[in-house]
Model the fold of this input.
Amino acid sequence: MSTVTGAEKLSDFGADYWVANLTSTVKYRQAVQYVLRTETLVTTMPATSLVFVEIGPHKVLTPLTREIVRTNYPRSDCQCVPTLLRESGAIRTVLETVGKLFEAGLQIDLNRVFSLTANEGSTKCIPELPPYA
Done:
């Protein structure tokens, strides 16, 4: 989902797209509304199981996401799950995200998750950074 176009985007993520991402009006509301109108999503999910995963430095979009859902699509609940939180380590919050998604009934390959955490001490993708403050 693209907040540049307000709709689904699967290709053409070149320099022009990222310039537009930085210089255009953010179309977050339109992007969420597009997700809510998507036939596949609406017809395959139970009425109360809408889950949004927020990928960002803190759960700043949760209130807006809930308001958009309540206003535009009559669901009894909308669960927003953050991936990173201030004052918390990334590994812990991502594992908490996985747990919340599992609790919400989504299928999670726990063997894959556990294999990633088992290698936590031996592999590093990026240098150790302090928690987001």
In short: Residues 45-118 form one domain. The longest strand covers residues 50-54. The mean pLDDT is 80. The beta strands are 50-54, 78-82.
